[in-house]
Backbone:
């Protein structure tokens, strides 16, 4: 099993949740470090930029997922594509207990922002109002 932190369309109740067949940890979490979070392009995709110390603590959910589900998530996030997300390790903090948990998550290197159409900068949380703008592939 893998602990994965989701902050955008893979969250429970969000557009790509059907791909996330994991078991959710109780509570809400946020990244230990601050990261920029944007809505990008005509699809309004949420991008967590892997630039620690910038932006805000990003809020999300943590799931335990088996290998096959992680492969499905990797496919959705296009981790092998040049413009896809990168799967990285980081720490998140449980907002209810203060516990720190090591997780995997998906982010984009800062250089991918060059030339990207940033539609909106988010203050650390991707909400249902942002998901309403999202367009799947």
Residues:
């Amino acid at each position: 099993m893998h602990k994965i932190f989701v902050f955008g369309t893979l969250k429970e109740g969000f557009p790509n949740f059907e791909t996330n067949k994991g078991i959710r940890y109780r509570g809400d979490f946020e990244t230990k470090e601050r990261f920029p979070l944007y809505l990008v392009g005509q699809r309004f995709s949420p991008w967590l930029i892997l630039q620690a110390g910038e932006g805000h603590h990003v809020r999300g959910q943590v799931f335990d997922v088996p290998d096959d589900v992680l492969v499905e998530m990797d496919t959705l996030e296009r981790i092998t594509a040049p413009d896809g997300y990168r799967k990285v390790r980081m720490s998140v903090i449980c907002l209810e207990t203060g516990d720190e948990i090591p997780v995997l998550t998906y982010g984009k290197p800062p250089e991918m922002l060059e030339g990207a159409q940033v539609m909106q900068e988010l203050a650390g949380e991707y909400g249902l109002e942002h998901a309403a703008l999202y367009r799947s592939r």
